[in-house]
Amino acid sequence: MQIPYTTEIRPDTGLYNAKLGVWLFLASEVMLFGGLFSAYVLLRVGAAPGEWPHGWLNVTLGTINTLLLALSAITTLLAWAACKVRDFGKFKFFHASTLLLALAFLGIKSYEYHDKFNHYEIAIGSGEYAGKFADGHFKSQSADFDLAKKTGTVTLEGHIVEDRKELMDLRSEEAKKAVHKELIIAAADIKKMQNYGPWHNTFTAIYFTMTGLHGLHILGGALVIFYLWGPGSKMWKTDPERFTNRVEVSGLFWHFVDLVWIFLFPVFYLT
């Protein structure tokens, strides 16, 4: 059975079926991320003064990831253009480039997540707080609290503050002047010890939720790109026009994913 409007234009919409379908899907995606961005705004506006973190993320890594996705938007467009002019070799090259850029993005994001899970905030019985915030330089002999109970101490590289609010804004002059050094804290003096996972506070919860969902979209898009580059490319020999349409549809999704990151980057990294 021949499926209608896989290559020809529908008279009622002016689009072929797949393109119409992806636009409807992207409309639902706009509502999904729109709701999450709205939640972010309400959570931030409703946060108590001095309780919303600033400077907790690595701007350099975020900028690199932004450039990677921007470049991938260009390569996926060039892959589609190569299909339109029937240059299959260039399509393979540009689509492979898009896939590699996507994997690089996910690799950097994974490093950022790992770094957050290796950041700790320790509430000390004396009323002080110990924190470690130097990106990528965590050093610990016993970062796990259960292990700390056995060894008797927690060793980490960080600094101690008297007020927890001093840990919130790492762009402040006090935070910039803070000297990170090796701290050895007795387990008996620790009231609470927690890493910077999504359970830490409101900021980390919404950060992991939104960037994690975006990362799943990147992974899903990368899988589609890999399929079209690999097994799915067999259609090029039998129906190149329909295959070109598939590449275009995947590119529309990829551009949407790129656009979402363009909003995520300043919201989390620059404010």
Q: How would you describe the overall organization of this protein?
A:
This protein has helices at 17-45, 59-84, 88-117, 145-151, 173-177, 202-229, 235-238, 240-269, and strands spanning 120-124, 129-131, 153-161, 181-186, 190-195. It is of the alpha+beta class. Strands 4-3-2-1-5 form a five-stranded antiparallel beta sheet. β1 and β2 (129-131) form a beta hairpin.
Notable traits:
271 residues, alpha+beta, 2 domains, 5 strands, 11% strand
Short description:
Mean pLDDT is 85; it is low at 133-143.
Radius of gyration: 24 Å
Percent helix, as a range, is 55-70%
Give the SSE order as H and E letters.
HHHEEHEHEEHHH
Instruction: Output the number of helix runs.
Output: 8
Distance between the termini: 55 Å
Q: Please give the CATH class of the largest domain.
A: Mainly Alpha
Architecture (CATH level 2) name of the largest domain: Up-down Bundle
- The side-by-side strand order for the widest beta sheet comes to 4-3-2-1-5
DSSP strand count: 5
Overall domain count: 2
State the major sheet: 5 strands, antiparallel
Helical/strand content category: alpha+beta
CATH topology of the largest domain: Four Helix Bundle (Hemerythrin (Met), subunit A)
Q: What percentage of the residues does DSSP assign to strands (E)?
A: 5-15%
Shape: elongated
